[in-house]
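Design review, sub-item: ligand-bound model
Attendees: FS, YL, KQ
YL presented the inputs for the iron/sulfur cluster complex:
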Amino acid sequence: MLDKAELLLPAGSLVKLKTAILYGADAVYAGTPDMCLRAQSKFSMEELREGIEFVHRHGKKIYLTLNLFMHNRDVAKLPTFVETLRQLKPDGVLIADPGVFMFVKEHAPELNLFVSTQANICSAQAVKFWQQQGAKLCVLGREVTFAEMKEIREQCPDILLECFMHGAMCMSYSGRCLISNYLADRSANQGKCAHCCRWHYKLHLRLKDGSIKELTIDEHNKDSFEFLLEEEFRPGEYYEVMEDEHGGYMLNSKDMCLLPRLPDLLGIGMDSLKVEGRNKTEYYAGIVARTYRQAIDDWYSSPDTWDYTRYMPELDTLQNRGYCLGFHDGKLTNISQNYEYTRTLGDWLFAGSIVEWQGDDAIFEIRNYIDSGESIAFLQPHSLNNLRLSLTEFEDADSGEITAKVSAGQGKKIRLRPTVWNQDINEVKRLLPQYTIARKFQPLSGPNGEMLHRKQQEFKTLIK
Ligand code: SF4
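KQ shared the predicted structure:
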């Protein structure tokens, strides 16, 4: 067991990796295009080398995923991949398939073998099995409740344990699902999930004459009827299917956020706290890393005065589907499901990031439209403080052209001269190093705003 839990962030690309480390991650996990579960990894081999070197230079750790379930056709690639791993020297390799585990153990005995969430470890017995095989760490399934996690920790004190703390939930048993395969020809078990469980579905009726009619829900009929499913062997037991003008959401989980339960995880000695989201932006990586870094450090220094409400507003600045506690408190309740919308909503947008300092000029890549006079908050990596800036004009970083507003696109960058900051430029450079991210406030109004704030209220009722 480690003395202090590790904050583990996803690294879906080199920039995301560097941002996560800058904002406080102790470790990152990444894959390679060929063999990892996330088949759409943005890493080339060269970038991976650079990423590993960057992480180690900062005294942090990196784990690589090799967690797909192999078919015979994949086995021939294993020797090459294992050889590459031996050269790259990651701090751990995440594996799910027992055959892969055995192969890597035999051919690269110096590598630390971790058992991925794809192995669905939900009991102390399963942890002990993998420990006997030589695993150094086991990732517990998202489906493990806190009560179970505590028992597993007590019964397995001599192996590192990791659990999920933040990120999207899978409606299936963590990736074991055929919906994506069936509807999009993309296998979740091969890392290509298309999130079909969150797509919009509409109800249709087939009439006796064979014609099909869509049920259009509108202002006039929305209160006239409900849709109910009845399972063959449960007569009279009805499952309500919700549909409104946006569609129906039968399988639409909210996102997991265990920030309010962080003292539980730290108190029992979980070794690694994992954040999901390799396909999310560096903005997500930066904010999640910064928030949990601060929350974890504060708990260790003063557990009695720790209060999650200090950090929650930061996580609320992220686009999300509404937060829930996953399985932490036990069985999922209705409130863990979002019946209103499938897209992510938020009051803040990723404005851009400082991609480079050229002398005293910051080169700022634009990620969203910014208008003259809008306030931009630059997020300081080592505290929850921000540095605000409001510009009346924008200087193109390449051409020098001056405009009154600026839009994102094709790597559009502006140059921020030292005079814009209104304070000592060396201090600005210290507070906002390369990869600093920035956001802008764009409050949602109308139904979207109401839905978002309703979800925030629902989360508060879950926490009590
Ligand atoms: S489609 Fe949904 S339920 Fe299936 S693997 Fe993807 S996220 Fe999970």
